Amino acid sequence: MTKLTHIDDSGKAHMVDVGAKNDTERAAIARGEIKMKKETFDLIAAGNMKKGDVLTVAQIAGINGAKRTSDLIPLCHPLLLTHISVQLDLDESLPGVQITASARLRGKTGVEMEALTAVSVAALTIYDMAKAAEKTMVIQNIRLVEKRGGKSGDIINQ
After folding, report:
1. Residue 53 known to be catalytic
2. Once rounded to an integer, what is the mean pLDDT over residues 76-97?
3. C-alpha count within 13 angstroms, C-beta hemisphere, residue 67
4. Do the beta carbons of residue 55 and residue 130 sit within 8 Å?
5. Phi, then psi, of 44 in degrees rounded to 5
6. What does the pLDDT read at residue 21?
7. Catalytic annotation, pick one of 9, 17, 53, 128
8. Which of 9, 115, 133, 156 has its CA 20 to 30 A from that of 148?
9. Residue 87 contacts residue 124 (beta carbons within 8 Å)
């Protein structure tokens, strides 16, 4: 049976001690999307949302979210990210926005949570900025698509 790393021998939650681990290159990519009505999509695409440039604000929010992950998720270690990017692509077939975040560092623990948080915060920001036009948008399919480095090795979940 696989042991959960954030549960101690007595069954209580704890922060994992990574002090003895070697620093290694680590990277993660996460994706998700926010689906909306065509009318809302068109407002965002044309830059006509009352609150301003939705995609730029969401991109910056996603980056800030990644940097603040340990403040939001109690047992995450504060990390010195060497790279975080958030890409937002309008997707008329949804209609909506595809969100991709990538994070990198050289350290003792992975950056999956930072990439996932970046996607989540970017999606929430899009919702916030567009909710005056539509309150039925759906944030969906947030997932880790790639992880590199660390003891557990590389993972690809396309």
Report:
1. no
2. 95
3. 11
4. no
5. -65, -45
6. 62
7. 128
8. 9
9. no
